[in-house]
Design goal:
This protein is an all-beta fold. The protein has one domain (26-128). It is built from no helices and 10 strands. The strands form 3 sheets. The protein has a 4-stranded antiparallel sheet with strand order 3-4-5-6, with no helix packed on it. Strands 7-8-9-10 form a 4-stranded antiparallel sheet, with no helix packed on it. A two-stranded antiparallel ribbon has the order 1-2. The protein is globular and about 50 Å long. The N and C termini lie far apart (61 Å).
Length: 142
């Protein structure tokens, strides 16, 4: 279920569900209201892991009802989607960034260039690997 704030009436408004019947969520929702492709207030952007281990991206344009658009899925081998979608400070209006956990246990950044009007392409960014190091031995003098 999705709520949005009506700033004129200063109250929260129930606007239904994210996406449609094809939006099957298998991970955490990463949610933001961007200022990309629209005037303020901007679109609602949602990214989550689908049941096929890909990332799903939905865009909702605001109005009386939210009109949801399913964008092409991107990335694969996703174990868990992140609960945060960030509109960064790179360029204007700022790229969208999301971090996920891969099935390998590594974390990876994905980002979308918002400087290109209508761009729906996500780019794979850095992979963050965990380095397992043995714990130092503790000396017991007693």
């Amino acid at each position: 279920m999705c709520n949005t704030c009506d700033t004129t009436a200063q109250k929260w408004v129930d606007v239904g569900y994210v996406g449609d019947a094809t939006a099957i969520v298998a991970g955490y929702l990463a949610f933001i209201q961007s200022n990309f492709d629209s005037l303020e207030p901007g679109n609602l952007e949602v990214v989550f892991r689908g049941p096929d281990d890909t990332l799903q991206h939905w865009t909702g344009s605001l109005g009386t009802n939210i009109d949801w658009t399913r964008n092409p899925p991107f990335a694969g081998n996703i174990q868990q989607s992140g609960p945060a979608l960030v509109q960064g400070l790179v360029d204007t209006p700022g790229h969208l960034d999301v971090m996920v956990v891969l099935n390998t246990g590594e974390m990876q950044l994905f980002w979308r260039n918002n400087n290109i009007l209508g761009n729906k392409t996500w780019t794979a960014g850095e992979i963050f690997r965990l380095r397992h190091r043995p714990l130092p031995a503790l000396h017991d003098p007693g």
